Amino acid sequence: MAAETGTPTTLTLKSNDDELFSVAESAAILSVTIRNMVEDGCAGGVIPLDNVDGKTLASVITYMNGISAIPADEEKKKSYRDKFLSDKDFETLADMVLAANYLNMSCLMDAVSAKIAQVMEKKSVGWVRRKFGIENDYTPEEEAAVKEEHKWTFEGVETDDDN
Amino acid sequence: MVGKGVTIDWKLRPKKCGKRCYVDNDRISQLPDAILVTILSFLSMKEAARTSVLSSRWINLWKDFPRLDFDAESALLKIARDYELHGEESGKYVEWVNRVIQSHKATTLKEFRVCFDLSRSVKNSITQWLEFALSRHVEKLELDFKTKFENSGCEDTHYNFPEKFLKHPSQSSSINFKSLKALSLKCVNVTGEAIEFFLRNCPSLEKLVVTYTSKLSNLEVCGPSLALKHLDLRFCFRLKSVKVSAPNLISLTVPKVEGLLLENVPALVELSLILTIPYRAVKKKLSTLSCCISQLEILYLNLDSKVKLCCCDSTRSDGQVKNTVKFPHEHLKVFKFCGYYGRSSDVELVWCILENCVALEKLIIDP
């Protein structure tokens, strides 16, 4: 555990492309990964985050600062998250969900996951494949077998248009 | 194409294939399993399962889905229109649940819900479902076997909650009630002893719903450390006595006021009585509840056969407007009577209200 110094601490985070970021410890410890490093006393110098690039880390830090500035009001936090994610494209969301997973930030992880799920919701298999560029590697026989096994999931869904 | 002996080794394919076989822009399929599973958890069970068809990368991901809700509304509607289809549809339902749980991989479940017109004849399957859910530390468990004939004395065909689950926990180690937060048993035969067992062995149980059961006659819901907040025993018409002493209980629904003994219920604010009460007897019947009536915010009564009353404590001036009438007691200030037809009984009721409700400030009659 780090010794209690009593002064507000700023941490320096380093992305995997060697960008350095300063962030208040109080905001950064939203990440359990960073919090553990702080508690283990490894936060004295620069904290290297090997799995996050500078662009994503900048975005995550914006989120950390924004959300930690909101007092304990779940409604307000939710609307901040919604707004924060509203203009992000899927590439960015994918980077963020990986970063959130690595940094162990469950609130960001859940918000981004929900946002991605929202895109898939109520869409046909063909639409989801095209939207996300998912390559269908089933043979026609295999696909028919999987569809048969999951026939119940197609009840009430409009006919797929990709066949 | 199906049934031509196509065999696919689903488990091997993605591994054999490896990451590189995904086209470059298939970013989502490159995400780790744990993340994709989290994404799927925000979909409905049906939609999550449908992702299996996307590609071989997705075939097993939904099998970690934490909320299994076997909802078969459309099949139930079919049966309601033509009961001849019951045998076939219930067979399909049982097969569906069996198939899904056989291949499911989640080690913990947030929710397990089955809802179909099923009788004791498929008890072996139902018991397996219960074992499946309880051994996965399920938090919210609902068995709803509501039948078409639920009110016509067919309770003898209801599934009996298995005694074997109600032994001391150590004797059936894989069965675990500890995580249970909400338990709902509809049209399941369950005894008072069984419910008392749940209360003793489910330290986190906050919501308990037991309806349409004929085996329940006497029940004690008592304990200083009960986490229970909501108890619903509606349509348990053979219930003779209920003793409730639960410090955290917020809402209680019972068939009738007779046999109801409320002791330590400081948090109780909502009480619903299901059976019809002749409104002339209201005052007498409610006197049984005198220990808690002044703390109630909402009291639902079913008066006569047509008129519904609801009593609402004046401390909430914005009392909930339901399709019922708000009936006063000595603190009531606002009263709303919906469905006023001007019958002599309605007029009498209004007088009754005016007489009994000394603090009334506002009376709304909504014809």
- What is the approximate shape of chain A? elongated
Run of helices and strands of chain B:
HHHHEHHEHEEEEHEEEEEEEHEEEEHE
Q: What is the topology, as strand order, of the major beta sheet of chain A?
A: 2-1-3
Largest contact between chains: A-B, 43 and 40 residues
Structural domain tally of chain A:
2
Q: Major sheet of chain A, described briefly?
A: 3 strands, mixed
**Average predicted local confidence, pLDDT of chain A:** 89
Number of helices of chain B: 10
User: How far do the termini of chain B sit from each other?
Assistant: 63 Å
> Using only CA atoms, what is the Rg of chain A?
21 Å
The total beta strand count of chain B reads 18
End-to-end C-alpha gap of chain A: 59 Å
CATH topology of the largest domain in chain A: Potassium Channel Kv1.1, Chain A
Structural class of chain A: mainly alpha
Low-confidence stretches of chain A: none
Mass-distribution shape of chain B: elongated
Mean pLDDT of chain B: 78
* Total number of beta strands of chain A: 3
Q: What share of residues are in beta strands of chain B?
A: 15-25%
Indicate the structural class of chain B. alpha/beta
CATH class of the largest domain in chain A: Alpha Beta
Structure notes:
The complex is a heterodimer of chains A (163) and B (367). Chain A has two domains: 10-120, Potassium Channel Kv1.1, Chain A (2-Layer Sandwich), CATH 3.30.710; 125-154, no CATH class. In chain A, strands 2-1-3 form a three-stranded mixed sheet. Chain A has helices spanning 25-28, 32-39, 54-68, 74-86, 90-103, 106-120, 125-132, 140-149; strands at 10-14, 20-24, 46-48. The radius of gyration of chain A is 21 Å and the shape is elongated. Chain A is mainly alpha-helical. Chain A contains eight helices and three strands, in the order ββααβαααααα. In chain A, strand 1 and strand 2 (20-24) form a beta hairpin. Chain B has 367 residues and is an alpha/beta fold. Chain B folds into three domains: 11-65, no CATH class; 66-268; 279-367. Chain B is built from ten helices and 18 strands. In chain B, the strands form four sheets. In chain B, strands 1-2-3-5-7-9-11-13-14-15-16 form an eleven-stranded mixed sheet, with no helix packed on it. The radius of gyration of chain B is 25 Å and the shape is elongated. Chain B starts with 11 loop residues before the first helix and ends with a strand. Residues 1-22 and 305-334 of chain B have low confidence and may be disordered. The A-B interface holds A 90-91, 94, 97-98, 101, 109-110, 113-114, 116-118, 120-122, 125, 128-129, 132-138, 140-150, 152-157 and B 1-2, 4, 6, 8, 17, 21-23, 25-29, 31-32, 34-35, 38-43, 46-47, 49-59, 74, 96, 99.
